[in-house]
Design goal:
The protein is mainly beta. It contains 3 helices and 25 strands. Strand 6 and strand 7 form a beta hairpin.
Length: about 400
Protein backbone atom coordinates (compact mmCIF):
# COMPACT_ATOMS: atom_id res chain seq x y z
CA UNK A 1 0.00 0.00 0.00
CA UNK A 2 1.09 3.50 -0.55
CA UNK A 3 2.60 4.97 2.53
CA UNK A 4 3.61 8.52 3.27
CA UNK A 5 4.88 9.76 6.57
CA UNK A 6 3.76 12.71 8.66
CA UNK A 7 5.71 14.03 11.65
CA UNK A 8 3.93 15.06 14.83
CA UNK A 9 6.04 16.95 17.38
CA UNK A 10 4.72 17.04 20.94
CA UNK A 11 6.06 19.14 23.82
CA UNK A 12 5.20 17.72 27.24
CA UNK A 13 2.05 16.20 25.66
CA UNK A 14 0.50 19.69 25.69
CA UNK A 15 1.58 21.42 22.48
CA UNK A 16 0.88 19.49 19.25
CA UNK A 17 2.10 20.64 15.88
CA UNK A 18 0.19 19.23 12.90
CA UNK A 19 2.14 20.84 10.08
CA UNK A 20 4.45 18.76 7.92
CA UNK A 21 7.45 20.67 9.28
CA UNK A 22 7.66 22.40 12.67
CA UNK A 23 10.45 24.72 13.76
CA UNK A 24 10.63 25.69 17.44
CA UNK A 25 12.93 28.37 18.88
CA UNK A 26 13.84 27.87 22.52
CA UNK A 27 15.65 30.51 24.58
CA UNK A 28 17.83 28.74 27.11
CA UNK A 29 19.66 30.05 30.14
CA UNK A 30 23.29 30.89 29.43
CA UNK A 31 26.35 30.98 31.59
CA UNK A 32 28.33 34.09 32.40
CA UNK A 33 30.06 34.09 29.01
CA UNK A 34 26.88 33.59 27.00
CA UNK A 35 27.25 29.84 26.34
CA UNK A 36 24.32 27.50 26.74
CA UNK A 37 24.85 25.03 29.54
CA UNK A 38 25.28 21.48 28.20
CA UNK A 39 23.14 20.04 30.99
CA UNK A 40 20.42 22.61 30.38
CA UNK A 41 20.55 21.96 26.62
CA UNK A 42 20.16 18.21 27.07
CA UNK A 43 17.24 18.77 29.42
CA UNK A 44 15.50 21.03 26.94
CA UNK A 45 15.83 18.62 24.05
CA UNK A 46 14.53 15.74 26.18
CA UNK A 47 11.16 17.50 26.31
CA UNK A 48 10.60 16.84 22.62
CA UNK A 49 9.60 13.55 20.99
CA UNK A 50 8.92 12.81 17.33
CA UNK A 51 6.20 10.38 16.38
CA UNK A 52 6.04 9.06 12.81
CA UNK A 53 3.08 7.10 11.50
CA UNK A 54 2.37 5.73 8.01
CA UNK A 55 -0.79 6.60 6.09
CA UNK A 56 -1.95 3.02 6.37
CA UNK A 57 -5.41 1.49 6.10
CA UNK A 58 -7.46 1.88 9.30
CA UNK A 59 -10.84 0.67 10.57
CA UNK A 60 -13.25 3.50 11.25
CA UNK A 61 -16.03 3.66 13.81
CA UNK A 62 -18.43 3.79 10.83
CA UNK A 63 -17.43 0.26 9.86
CA UNK A 64 -15.74 1.34 6.62
CA UNK A 65 -12.01 1.41 5.92
CA UNK A 66 -10.20 4.71 6.06
CA UNK A 67 -6.69 6.12 5.76
CA UNK A 68 -4.64 7.12 8.80
CA UNK A 69 -3.74 10.82 8.39
CA UNK A 70 -4.06 13.97 10.47
CA UNK A 71 -7.49 15.45 11.13
CA UNK A 72 -6.77 18.74 9.27
CA UNK A 73 -5.54 16.82 6.24
CA UNK A 74 -8.70 14.70 6.32
CA UNK A 75 -10.88 17.80 6.34
CA UNK A 76 -8.85 19.29 3.49
CA UNK A 77 -9.51 16.15 1.42
CA UNK A 78 -13.24 16.41 2.09
CA UNK A 79 -13.16 13.30 4.25
CA UNK A 80 -14.88 12.33 7.46
CA UNK A 81 -12.90 11.68 10.65
CA UNK A 82 -14.15 8.46 12.18
CA UNK A 83 -12.02 7.24 15.07
CA UNK A 84 -8.31 7.40 15.75
CA UNK A 85 -5.28 5.42 14.61
CA UNK A 86 -1.52 5.28 15.17
CA UNK A 87 -2.00 5.01 18.97
CA UNK A 88 -4.18 8.10 18.96
CA UNK A 89 -1.78 10.33 17.02
CA UNK A 90 -3.69 10.00 13.73
CA UNK A 91 -7.28 10.31 12.55
CA UNK A 92 -9.01 7.54 10.61
CA UNK A 93 -10.22 9.43 7.56
CA UNK A 94 -13.04 7.94 5.46
CA UNK A 95 -13.57 9.37 1.99
CA UNK A 96 -16.89 9.23 0.15
CA UNK A 97 -17.74 10.35 -3.37
CA UNK A 98 -21.51 10.85 -3.28
CA UNK A 99 -21.82 12.21 -6.81
CA UNK A 100 -22.82 10.70 -10.13
CA UNK A 101 -19.24 10.69 -11.44
CA UNK A 102 -16.05 12.65 -10.79
CA UNK A 103 -12.34 12.11 -10.21
CA UNK A 104 -11.22 9.64 -7.54
CA UNK A 105 -8.14 11.51 -6.31
CA UNK A 106 -7.36 9.50 -3.15
CA UNK A 107 -6.81 5.88 -2.27
CA UNK A 108 -9.53 3.92 -0.42
CA UNK A 109 -12.34 6.19 -1.61
CA UNK A 110 -15.92 4.90 -1.52
CA UNK A 111 -18.21 5.68 -4.45
CA UNK A 112 -21.78 5.80 -3.20
CA UNK A 113 -24.91 6.70 -5.10
CA UNK A 114 -26.42 10.16 -4.53
CA UNK A 115 -28.81 9.94 -1.60
CA UNK A 116 -27.22 6.73 -0.29
CA UNK A 117 -28.41 4.61 1.55
CA UNK A 118 -31.70 5.29 -0.25
CA UNK A 119 -32.01 4.19 -3.86
CA UNK A 120 -31.10 6.33 -6.87
CA UNK A 121 -33.74 6.54 -9.59
CA UNK A 122 -32.35 9.20 -11.94
CA UNK A 123 -31.54 8.12 -15.49
CA UNK A 124 -28.24 9.11 -17.06
CA UNK A 125 -24.55 8.21 -17.23
CA UNK A 126 -22.16 8.52 -14.29
CA UNK A 127 -18.45 8.57 -15.23
CA UNK A 128 -15.49 8.30 -12.84
CA UNK A 129 -11.80 8.68 -13.64
CA UNK A 130 -9.22 7.00 -11.39
CA UNK A 131 -5.76 8.56 -11.83
CA UNK A 132 -2.76 6.84 -10.26
CA UNK A 133 -1.69 8.28 -6.92
CA UNK A 134 1.90 7.05 -7.51
CA UNK A 135 3.97 5.87 -10.44
CA UNK A 136 4.39 2.38 -8.94
CA UNK A 137 0.64 1.62 -8.99
CA UNK A 138 -0.21 -1.27 -11.32
CA UNK A 139 -3.86 -2.09 -10.66
CA UNK A 140 -7.11 -0.64 -9.34
CA UNK A 141 -9.31 -2.88 -7.22
CA UNK A 142 -13.06 -2.23 -7.16
CA UNK A 143 -14.88 -3.79 -4.19
CA UNK A 144 -18.63 -3.81 -4.67
CA UNK A 145 -19.71 -3.66 -1.03
CA UNK A 146 -23.16 -2.98 -2.45
CA UNK A 147 -24.18 -2.99 -6.10
CA UNK A 148 -27.79 -3.50 -7.08
CA UNK A 149 -29.06 -2.13 -10.37
CA UNK A 150 -31.64 -3.31 -12.92
CA UNK A 151 -31.59 -7.05 -13.67
CA UNK A 152 -30.36 -8.39 -17.00
CA UNK A 153 -32.85 -8.94 -19.81
CA UNK A 154 -34.87 -12.11 -19.29
CA UNK A 155 -37.52 -11.79 -22.01
CA UNK A 156 -35.96 -10.65 -25.30
CA UNK A 157 -34.87 -13.79 -27.14
CA UNK A 158 -31.79 -12.16 -28.64
CA UNK A 159 -30.70 -10.42 -25.43
CA UNK A 160 -31.25 -12.91 -22.57
CA UNK A 161 -28.67 -12.26 -19.85
CA UNK A 162 -27.47 -8.98 -21.33
CA UNK A 163 -27.38 -5.74 -19.32
CA UNK A 164 -29.77 -3.74 -21.47
CA UNK A 165 -31.30 -1.44 -18.81
CA UNK A 166 -28.50 -0.57 -16.37
CA UNK A 167 -24.86 -1.53 -16.16
CA UNK A 168 -21.53 -0.68 -14.58
CA UNK A 169 -18.42 -1.07 -16.72
CA UNK A 170 -14.74 -0.38 -16.03
CA UNK A 171 -12.11 0.39 -18.66
CA UNK A 172 -8.40 -0.42 -18.40
CA UNK A 173 -6.06 2.57 -18.65
CA UNK A 174 -5.06 3.34 -22.24
CA UNK A 175 -1.33 3.08 -21.52
CA UNK A 176 -1.72 -0.23 -19.74
CA UNK A 177 0.87 -2.85 -18.95
CA UNK A 178 -0.76 -5.62 -21.00
CA UNK A 179 -2.50 -6.28 -24.28
CA UNK A 180 -5.76 -5.34 -22.54
CA UNK A 181 -4.77 -1.66 -22.43
CA UNK A 182 -7.76 0.58 -23.05
CA UNK A 183 -10.17 -2.33 -23.32
CA UNK A 184 -13.41 -2.59 -21.41
CA UNK A 185 -14.19 -5.19 -18.76
CA UNK A 186 -17.52 -7.08 -18.81
CA UNK A 187 -20.71 -5.15 -18.12
CA UNK A 188 -22.12 -5.79 -14.64
CA UNK A 189 -25.79 -5.57 -13.69
CA UNK A 190 -28.30 -7.16 -11.32
CA UNK A 191 -27.27 -7.97 -7.72
CA UNK A 192 -23.51 -8.07 -7.13
CA UNK A 193 -22.92 -7.30 -3.46
CA UNK A 194 -19.50 -8.42 -2.15
CA UNK A 195 -18.06 -9.01 -5.62
CA UNK A 196 -14.88 -7.36 -6.86
CA UNK A 197 -12.70 -6.85 -9.94
CA UNK A 198 -9.25 -5.55 -10.88
CA UNK A 199 -8.60 -2.89 -13.52
CA UNK A 200 -5.28 -2.11 -15.22
CA UNK A 201 -3.94 1.22 -13.91
CA UNK A 202 -1.57 1.82 -16.83
CA UNK A 203 2.17 2.35 -17.24
CA UNK A 204 2.51 6.13 -17.35
CA UNK A 205 2.50 8.43 -14.34
CA UNK A 206 -0.55 10.21 -15.77
CA UNK A 207 -2.44 7.03 -16.66
CA UNK A 208 -5.98 6.66 -15.42
CA UNK A 209 -8.55 3.91 -15.47
CA UNK A 210 -12.23 4.76 -15.79
CA UNK A 211 -15.61 3.41 -14.81
CA UNK A 212 -19.10 4.38 -15.85
CA UNK A 213 -22.64 3.57 -14.84
CA UNK A 214 -25.20 3.72 -17.64
CA UNK A 215 -28.68 3.98 -16.12
CA UNK A 216 -32.00 4.07 -17.98
CA UNK A 217 -35.53 4.22 -16.64
CA UNK A 218 -36.42 4.76 -12.99
CA UNK A 219 -35.22 1.53 -11.40
CA UNK A 220 -34.04 2.06 -7.82
CA UNK A 221 -30.27 1.46 -7.72
CA UNK A 222 -27.88 1.30 -4.80
CA UNK A 223 -24.11 1.22 -4.96
CA UNK A 224 -21.19 1.47 -2.57
CA UNK A 225 -17.87 0.72 -4.27
CA UNK A 226 -14.47 0.91 -2.58
CA UNK A 227 -11.63 2.00 -4.89
CA UNK A 228 -8.15 0.79 -3.88
CA UNK A 229 -4.86 1.27 -5.70
CA UNK A 230 -2.51 -1.74 -5.77
CA UNK A 231 1.29 -1.22 -5.97
CA UNK A 232 3.24 -3.32 -8.43
CA UNK A 233 5.12 -5.09 -5.62
CA UNK A 234 2.07 -5.77 -3.42
CA UNK A 235 1.46 -9.29 -2.11
CA UNK A 236 -2.21 -8.84 -3.03
CA UNK A 237 -1.44 -8.01 -6.65
CA UNK A 238 -2.96 -10.78 -8.83
CA UNK A 239 -1.08 -12.53 -11.63
CA UNK A 240 -1.41 -11.22 -15.18
CA UNK A 241 -4.85 -11.74 -16.72
CA UNK A 242 -6.87 -12.14 -13.51
CA UNK A 243 -10.00 -10.00 -13.22
CA UNK A 244 -10.71 -11.40 -9.76
CA UNK A 245 -8.21 -12.53 -7.13
CA UNK A 246 -8.97 -14.49 -3.97
CA UNK A 247 -6.64 -15.24 -1.06
CA UNK A 248 -6.76 -17.73 1.81
CA UNK A 249 -7.12 -21.51 1.90
CA UNK A 250 -10.93 -21.51 1.58
CA UNK A 251 -13.46 -19.23 -0.07
CA UNK A 252 -16.17 -18.94 -2.70
CA UNK A 253 -16.15 -17.80 -6.32
CA UNK A 254 -19.50 -16.75 -7.77
CA UNK A 255 -20.73 -15.61 -11.16
CA UNK A 256 -21.96 -12.04 -11.38
CA UNK A 257 -25.66 -11.64 -10.49
CA UNK A 258 -25.45 -14.89 -8.52
CA UNK A 259 -27.16 -13.30 -5.50
CA UNK A 260 -30.38 -12.31 -7.25
CA UNK A 261 -33.70 -13.47 -5.82
CA UNK A 262 -34.67 -17.15 -5.94
CA UNK A 263 -36.50 -18.20 -9.09
CA UNK A 264 -34.86 -15.43 -11.13
CA UNK A 265 -31.35 -16.82 -11.34
CA UNK A 266 -29.61 -15.75 -14.51
CA UNK A 267 -25.88 -15.38 -15.02
CA UNK A 268 -24.76 -12.50 -17.21
CA UNK A 269 -24.17 -13.01 -20.91
CA UNK A 270 -21.04 -12.22 -22.88
CA UNK A 271 -18.65 -12.65 -19.96
CA UNK A 272 -15.11 -13.90 -20.31
CA UNK A 273 -12.63 -13.52 -17.45
CA UNK A 274 -10.42 -15.39 -15.01
CA UNK A 275 -10.93 -15.65 -11.25
CA UNK A 276 -7.55 -16.50 -9.70
CA UNK A 277 -6.65 -17.85 -6.29
CA UNK A 278 -3.35 -17.15 -4.58
CA UNK A 279 -1.36 -20.29 -3.89
CA UNK A 280 -0.81 -20.25 -0.15
CA UNK A 281 2.37 -21.55 1.43
CA UNK A 282 2.53 -25.33 1.66
CA UNK A 283 -0.32 -25.99 -0.81
CA UNK A 284 0.25 -27.59 -4.21
CA UNK A 285 -3.31 -28.33 -5.44
CA UNK A 286 -6.73 -26.72 -5.39
CA UNK A 287 -10.17 -28.32 -4.91
CA UNK A 288 -13.45 -27.02 -6.34
CA UNK A 289 -16.89 -28.09 -5.04
CA UNK A 290 -20.29 -26.64 -5.82
CA UNK A 291 -21.88 -24.92 -2.82
CA UNK A 292 -25.08 -25.95 -1.05
CA UNK A 293 -26.98 -23.01 -2.60
CA UNK A 294 -29.91 -23.88 -4.82
CA UNK A 295 -28.79 -24.24 -8.45
CA UNK A 296 -25.28 -23.33 -7.35
CA UNK A 297 -23.79 -24.89 -10.50
CA UNK A 298 -26.15 -24.54 -13.45
CA UNK A 299 -24.65 -23.73 -16.85
CA UNK A 300 -26.42 -24.31 -20.17
CA UNK A 301 -29.09 -26.59 -18.69
CA UNK A 302 -32.90 -26.23 -18.46
CA UNK A 303 -34.27 -25.49 -14.98
CA UNK A 304 -35.24 -29.12 -14.24
CA UNK A 305 -32.21 -30.83 -15.80
CA UNK A 306 -29.32 -31.43 -13.40
CA UNK A 307 -27.18 -33.72 -15.52
CA UNK A 308 -23.58 -32.68 -15.98
CA UNK A 309 -21.83 -31.94 -19.21
CA UNK A 310 -18.09 -31.96 -19.91
CA UNK A 311 -15.43 -31.32 -22.52
CA UNK A 312 -15.33 -29.28 -25.69
CA UNK A 313 -18.17 -31.23 -27.30
CA UNK A 314 -20.46 -31.14 -24.27
CA UNK A 315 -19.81 -27.49 -23.34
CA UNK A 316 -19.82 -25.65 -26.65
CA UNK A 317 -21.79 -22.59 -25.50
CA UNK A 318 -21.11 -21.71 -21.83
CA UNK A 319 -18.60 -23.25 -19.45
CA UNK A 320 -16.13 -22.78 -16.66
CA UNK A 321 -12.63 -24.11 -17.18
CA UNK A 322 -10.56 -25.84 -14.50
CA UNK A 323 -7.47 -26.95 -16.33
CA UNK A 324 -6.22 -30.43 -15.47
CA UNK A 325 -9.18 -31.19 -13.21
CA UNK A 326 -10.48 -34.60 -12.17
CA UNK A 327 -12.79 -36.06 -9.53
CA UNK A 328 -10.88 -35.89 -6.23
CA UNK A 329 -7.66 -35.66 -8.22
CA UNK A 330 -7.90 -39.23 -9.54
CA UNK A 331 -6.73 -39.00 -13.13
CA UNK A 332 -8.43 -41.38 -15.53
CA UNK A 333 -11.79 -41.07 -13.74
CA UNK A 334 -13.30 -38.62 -16.25
CA UNK A 335 -15.60 -39.01 -19.20
CA UNK A 336 -16.70 -36.72 -22.01
CA UNK A 337 -19.28 -37.29 -24.74
CA UNK A 338 -19.65 -39.56 -26.53
CA UNK A 339 -18.70 -41.89 -23.63
CA UNK A 340 -14.98 -41.29 -23.96
CA UNK A 341 -12.74 -41.82 -20.93
CA UNK A 342 -9.92 -39.32 -20.48
CA UNK A 343 -7.44 -38.56 -17.66
CA UNK A 344 -8.62 -35.01 -16.88
CA UNK A 345 -11.24 -32.49 -18.02
CA UNK A 346 -10.81 -28.75 -18.63
CA UNK A 347 -14.37 -27.61 -19.50
CA UNK A 348 -17.38 -28.04 -17.19
CA UNK A 349 -21.05 -27.15 -17.62
CA UNK A 350 -24.50 -28.66 -17.08
CA UNK A 351 -26.35 -28.98 -13.77
CA UNK A 352 -23.76 -30.79 -11.62
CA UNK A 353 -20.04 -30.25 -11.11
CA UNK A 354 -18.19 -33.45 -11.96
CA UNK A 355 -15.71 -34.59 -14.60
CA UNK A 356 -18.14 -37.33 -15.70
CA UNK A 357 -20.61 -36.57 -18.46
CA UNK A 358 -24.40 -36.94 -17.93
CA UNK A 359 -24.09 -37.48 -14.16
CA UNK A 360 -26.00 -36.01 -11.20
CA UNK A 361 -23.43 -37.13 -8.62
CA UNK A 362 -21.59 -34.12 -7.24
CA UNK A 363 -17.81 -34.41 -7.09
CA UNK A 364 -14.89 -32.31 -5.93
CA UNK A 365 -12.66 -31.31 -8.82
CA UNK A 366 -8.97 -31.21 -7.88
CA UNK A 367 -6.24 -29.72 -10.04
CA UNK A 368 -2.54 -29.13 -9.54
CA UNK A 369 -2.21 -26.84 -12.56
CA UNK A 370 -0.60 -23.49 -11.79
CA UNK A 371 -1.58 -20.73 -11.40
CA UNK A 372 -4.77 -21.65 -9.52
CA UNK A 373 -7.65 -20.21 -11.53
CA UNK A 374 -11.13 -20.77 -12.89
CA UNK A 375 -11.89 -19.38 -16.33
CA UNK A 376 -15.42 -18.14 -16.99
CA UNK A 377 -16.67 -18.26 -20.58
CA UNK A 378 -20.31 -17.24 -21.10
CA UNK A 379 -21.57 -16.55 -24.63
CA UNK A 380 -23.68 -13.60 -25.74
CA UNK A 381 -26.90 -15.65 -25.98
CA UNK A 382 -28.71 -17.35 -23.10
CA UNK A 383 -31.96 -19.28 -22.66
CA UNK A 384 -34.80 -17.83 -20.54
CA UNK A 385 -36.18 -19.57 -17.47
CA UNK A 386 -33.19 -21.88 -16.92
CA UNK A 387 -32.08 -20.60 -13.50
CA UNK A 388 -28.52 -20.74 -14.79
CA UNK A 389 -25.87 -19.18 -12.55
Amino acid sequence: WWRERVNIIAMQAVITCLALVCISHVIAATDSVGNISNARQEKLFSLFSIVNFPNALCSSTLGDNGTCITAPECIARGGQVSGTCASGFGACCVLYNRLCGGTVAYNNTYLVNPGYSSGYTTAGTCSWTIPKIRTDICLIRLDFDQLTVAAPDSTTSTAIGQCTTDYFQATNAVTGTTSTSGTTLPKICGVNDEEHMYVDAGMGSSSQATMEAVLTGTTSRTWKIKVSQIPCDSIVKPPHGCMQYHTGITGQVRSFNFATTSGNYLHLANHYYKACIRRERGYCKIAWSQSSDTDSFKISRPSTNYKSNTGNTGCQQDSVKIYGGSNYGVEGSCQVPPSTSIPTVDRYCGGTLTCNDASTNKNTIISGRLPFEIEVDFSSTETPGTNNR
